[in-house]
Amino acid sequence: MEVRENALEPGGSQLPACHKKIKPYIHKTPVLTSRLINEITGAEVYFKCENFQRMGAYKMRGATHALLQLTDEERSRGVVTHSSGNFAQALALAARTLGVTAHIVMPTSAPEVKKKGVLEYGGIIYECEPTLAARNTAASEIQQKTGAVFLHPSNDPDVILGQGTAAFELLQDYPQLNFLLLPVGGGGLIAGSALAAAYLGNNCKVIGTEPFEVDDAYRAMISGKIEENKTTNTIADGLKTQLGSNTLPVILDKVERIIRVEEQEIIDAMRLIWERMKIVVEPSSAVALAGLYRERKAFKDKQVGIVISGGNVDLSALPF
After folding, report:
1. CA 148 to chain centre
2. Which of 66, 239, 251, 300 could form a disulfide with 42 if both were Cys (CB 3.0 to 4.6 A apart)?
3. Distance between CA atoms of 164 and 11, rounded to whole angstroms?
4. Where is the Tryptophan synthase beta chain-like PALP domain (predicted)?
5. How many structural domains comprise the chain?
6. Phi, then psi, of 95 in degrees rounded to 5
């Protein structure tokens, strides 16, 4: 599937206009803290709670921005994407809000709670095998049949900018942050967040976190090229995708490093947030806290921002 290239300004100068455009359609999510988590990690941690965003994840921001950037003629043809869950729900809801038809390709392995969300938001689901090749093939066929505009869930420039508005809000409210820790899947959130940090110019370092089981971003920062994952055996279902042609250059240029974490560390971090902060977060959202705890000596006495990416969980299949 074709994706627009080179549409991102390296200094993040497009973010204020992007944020202004999507503001009427999104929530400005709260920032929470936990005294206990601060004591456990040795850092002062600020959680930007995108689990309270419309449809339950930060991806509402990118989906909304991408749709608003389309012409009326393009919106009349509908849109198509492929996603294991959160972008699928985000695009379905954003499309319904703006009166656009949304065709959503989802792998058969996608959580049932996320499929249900897409249907409730009015999206049309097409199931495929759980491989990137199968996703692309199905989306291409739908595009050819319907004339719908393809929107990549993480590599589209307008999606990346929209995702960056969560960090944009966090860093505007807490400009003193030393670090920003983010989960990495397709790279849209961390790339957009890195652009936000660059634009606001407060010397906040951006660090990625990902499971050992899907560590393509870690390897890509070493090789300088897009890497593939041979397995996707992780509880963090939202991070099973790989970097793209637009996200990788931003990450190579603006991200400090990637911290990898074990599956049990993700589960422990997720449980800690549920038990101590009393909020529902999905496994992918806990990866950043797991990374902070794993390398807590590096963040001792620092102020750290974490974007809790989403809270769409299958309550019948909790890992604890």
Report:
1. 23
2. 300
3. 12
4. 23-310
5. 2
6. -65, -40
Helix 247-254 crosses helix 216-223 at what angle (to 10 degrees)? 70
Give the residue numbers spanning the domain of 196. Answer: 15-58+158-312
Amino acid found at 21:
K
CA atoms of 165 and 62, how far apart (whole Å): 9
The pTM of the full predicted model, rounded to 2 decimals, is 0.95
If DSSP codes are grouped into helix, strand and coil, which group holds residue 103?
A: strand
Q: What residue has token string 């960090």?
A: 167
pLDDT tens digits, one per residue of 223-264: 999 999 988 899 998 898 899 999 999 999 999 999 999 999
What would the 3-class secondary structure string for 187-223 be? Answer: CHHHHHHHHHHHHHCCCCEEEEEEEHHHCHHHHHHHH
Q: Which two tokens stand for residue 156?
A: 């589209």
Other CB atoms within a 10 A radius of the CB of residue 154 amount to: 27
> Looking at 106, 123, 155, which one is the last position of a domain?
155
Q: How far apart are the first and last CA of the chain?
A: 38
Given the DSSP bridges, would you call strands 255-261 and 205-211 parallel, antiparallel or unpaired?
parallel
Amino acid code (one letter) for 27: H
For residue 122, pLDDT over 80 is answered with yes
Are the C-beta atoms of 193 and 169 separated by less than 8 Å? no
- For the chain, helix (H) and strand (E) counts, in that order, are 14, 10
